Amino acid sequence: MFKKYTYFLAVARYLSLKQAATQLGISQPTLSLSISNLEKEMGVKLFHRRSKGVELTEYGEALVEHATTVQAESAQFRNHIQRLQLRELGQIKLGVGEAWWECFVKQTIYSFREHYPDALFHFQFGNNLRLFELLLAGEIDLFIGHEIDIDALSNDVKFTPLFTDSEWLYVSQEHPLVNEQTVSDFPLLAVTPYMSRHSLRGVKQKKTLSHQVQYEIDSLYASLDIVLHSDAVMPYTDKMALWLEQRGLRAVVPTHPKTGVVGVYWRADSMTGVTRSLMSELEHASHRFIEQV
Q1: Domain residue limits, the chain
Q2: Is 51 exposed, middle or buried (0-12, 13-18, 19+ CB in 10 A)?
Q3: What is the mean pLDDT of residues 122-144?
Q4: Cβ(286)–Cβ(162) below 8 Å
Q5: Whole-model pTM above 0.70?
Q6: Which of 22, 86, 97, 204 suits 221 as a labelling partner, its CA being 20 to 30 A distant?
Q7: Each residue of 253-293: pLDDT tens digit?
């Protein structure tokens, strides 16, 4: 019935079987047969056939109003079913670092909400090890971060790589390091550092930061304030270079920068249809972001 109404409304809109068939992506004979069958079913003529197209009869005009109402009610019902399904699925629990939130995640969430306005979100911010712990505990469904150097993943935990990045150094505009001073002469600032409270078995702890570290800060914006008003050096992803420079920092590229793989960690046993849709959107968004930087 819905297909018949769709075909009928297309003809009523264009008043041409040929043009309506083209818009619907079907053959004109198929459309003509559908209209004829609908007229037989209704027991009335819906169109006057003319040499140039068709015209609605009085019955056809009445059916336009009815069919339009039926289609609108059907769309409302489908939306209602989708909202009920989303509520049954519960929250979409996403973990992310502040860098990737700024780079591409937040825009993805904005556009995703347009298609799933009733989706419930829980966001968890933190470093890789913290988010990995939450993933193993089932407190989040997926998270975006660097690939962790771990002996073996759980069978339920998967990693989908997105792109590679490099670790650059960021300093204030007048920092001596800009004039090729040695980085070891200055204090390092660790944003969301790998803290001792993380106790994941099999994880090989990073040794990037040494006794030089004088600041350990869980906030990117607080880190910006410290770097702007001190001689601290902040190691951070090269993918944030433009964003950080727009906020007053200078990027210093090391001779041999450390590189890593950024991707999505996810649990196979907690992925719903909506969560998979979000993950797919995040993958596409990350690729678009990389093409632009």
Answers
A1: 1-86, 89-194+213-291
A2: exposed
A3: 91
A4: yes
A5: no
A6: 204
A7: 988 899 999 999 998 887 888 888 999 999 999 999 999 98
Proportion of the chain above pLDDT 70, given as a percent: 84
Written out in words, the top-level CATH class of the domain with range 89-194+213-291 is alpha beta
Candidates 3.30.1780.10, 1.10.10.10, 1.10.287.1080, 3.40.50.150; CATH matching 1-86: 1.10.10.10
Strands 47-50, 53-56: pairing kind:
antiparallel
For 21, 121, 270, the CA distances from 137, given in Å and listed in that order, are 54, 18, 11
| SS3 per residue for 52-103 | CEEEECHHHHHHHHHHHHHHHHHHHHHHHHHHHHHHHHCEEEEEECHHHHHH
Strands (E) across 180-253 are located at 188-191, 213-217, 234-237, 249-252
First-to-last C-alpha distance (Å) of the chain: 50
pLDDT tens sequence across 165-184: 999 999 999 888 877 656 55
